[in-house]
Amino acid sequence: MKDIVAKSFKSPLSVDEMVKALQTNVPEVSWGGRESEYDDLYVLGRTADGVKIRILNYEAYDELEVYFPSRYFDERKKAFMARIDAEVLPAIGATEVPHGIAT
Fold it and tell me: Which of 64, 74, 81, 90 is 20 to 30 Å apart from 25, CA to CA?
């Protein structure tokens, strides 16, 4: 598994609403809103052991990117991504992106 993993989805929430929902439902990750000149407003999450999570809000879809530290082995990455699917995506009301929209 790669050190950077991305998932496309659609959420009805704004960036600010996502941050609040994630702070409430996934409190073991430090969540906040950030702004960059390239990505505009986005959600940034960081775990105590160095995993970085970005949620980018595009017009047609949203994208979640997970950046793993190099010391993470595949089994640990798979377990973390299972938690993303079970905890993070439901907390922000994520649904599948219609086929053909996302990369």
Answer: 74
